[in-house]
Amino acid sequence: MTTANGDSRPVLITGGCGFIGCNLADRLAGRGETVTVLDNLARPGVRENAQWLKSRHGDRVSIAVGDVRDPITVIDAVRDASAVLHLAAQVAVTSSLDNPTEDFEINARGTVNVLEAVRLHNRSAPVLFASTNKVYGRLIDASRIRREGSRYVPTDVELTRGISEDMPLDLYSPYGCSKGTADQYVRDYARIFDLNTTVLRMSCIYGPRQFGNEDQGWIAHFLLSALRREPITIYGDGCQVRDALSVADAVDAWLGVLDNIGRTRGKIFNLGGGPTNSVSLLELIELIDRIGNSPVRFIFSDWRPGDQPWYVTNVSALSAAIGWKPTTSLAQGLSGLQGWLESRFIRTPANREALA
């Protein structure tokens, strides 16, 4: 079937069996496009996501098992793609501390492999890259925030709208360095080689198909721990703030950028829930308490390297470019995610035995 841009070739999603990738693949296939997913199937839950995609869309979604660190594999996948959505990554700060070289090879070298494959074999294909707010480092030190109730707020009034793309990069942790390196390569390939590339620096994305752990997918991890009656570890004091964005809204943004690549090429956009969907860790626990009607147990531990005490996204640039804005409230999104987690992990006898 021909895509919205008049191209019958498949959209390639690297890391397409991961949380955001499989939601993107599902939406693209649902609107009639063919999708090729390139994934090494190494992370927990991705094989299940692959089966879910195939059960829903059959031959419209093809799963190619491979790794972005292998340039030949990447070339084969990129050559016939109408567009490349590059999400394959090492996603945890803690894992980057354990193995900085592997983190670099996946995030930085893997991204250059994708860019070179497009430059040499498929120059017209748009490339959208999943970057991260971690490229901004810790952002603000203790002197620039104050505590109000159970959250931090910035003392600078200009920051109340959130962090814009004008914030200087301050790469912190091997993960921040590898993603920041990739981020800048993607931008530069538009400037120097005239490729159709766009960077999306994402904040906290959550929703169905997210299996959640301490290192990545913390909202799902908090909810799942509460459902299992397991204690949650809070690193720091719990007053650190993030803005949360439902995966449905994130997919809307990704596809809006892709469908308007003529206006978005060569640009960097912050992507998050914005000030109206900001929440501290302690506030999230209170919300989970109310949703589940039972207290959530938690303990405190030391701050982790690179932890940001406050990060809220200013989404005005993306809104101006494609007319996008978040439409799912945090309460709505949490309710939907909890429903999926309950159906996946809690309710059936088979799942209860697996969790025992």
Distance between the termini: 46 Å
| Proportion of residues in β-strands | 15-25%
Overall pLDDT confidence: 93
Structural class: alpha/beta
CATH superfamily: NAD(P)-binding Rossmann-like Domain
Number of strands: 14
How many helices does DSSP assign?
13
Integer tally of domains = 1
Report what the structure shows.
β6 and β7 form a beta hairpin. The protein has one domain (11-355): Rossmann fold (3-Layer(aba) Sandwich), CATH 3.40.50.720. The model is unreliable at 350-356 (pLDDT under 50). The longest helix has 22 residues, at 100-121. Helix content is 42%, strand content 17%. It has helices spanning 19-30, 46-57, 71-78, 93-98, 100-121, 173-193, 218-227, 247-259, 261-264, 281-292, 316-322, 330-346, 349-355; strands at residues 11-14, 35-39, 61-65, 83-86, 127-132, 145-148, 151-154, 197-202, 204-206, 232-235, 241-246, 268-271, 278-280, 298-301. The strands form 4 sheets. Strands 3-2-1-4-5-8-12 form a 7-stranded parallel β-sheet, sandwiched between helices. Strands 9-11-13 form a 3-stranded mixed β-sheet. α5 (100-121) packs parallel to α6. With 356 residues, it is an alpha/beta fold.
Produce the secondary structure layout.
Layout (H helix, E strand, L loop, with lengths): L10 E4 L4 H12 L4 E5 L6 H12 L3 E5 L5 H8 L4 E4 L6 H6 L1 H22 L5 E6 L12 E4 L2 E4 L18 H21 L3 E6 L1 E3 L11 H10 L4 E4 L5 E6 H13 L1 H4 L3 E4 L6 E3 H12 L5 E4 L14 H7 L7 H17 L2 H7 L1
Parallel strand pairs: 1-2, 1-4, 2-3, 4-5, 5-8, 8-12, 9-11, 10-14
Antiparallel strand pairs: 6-7, 11-13
Helix pairs in contact: 1-2, 1-8, 3-5, 5-6, 7-10, 7-12
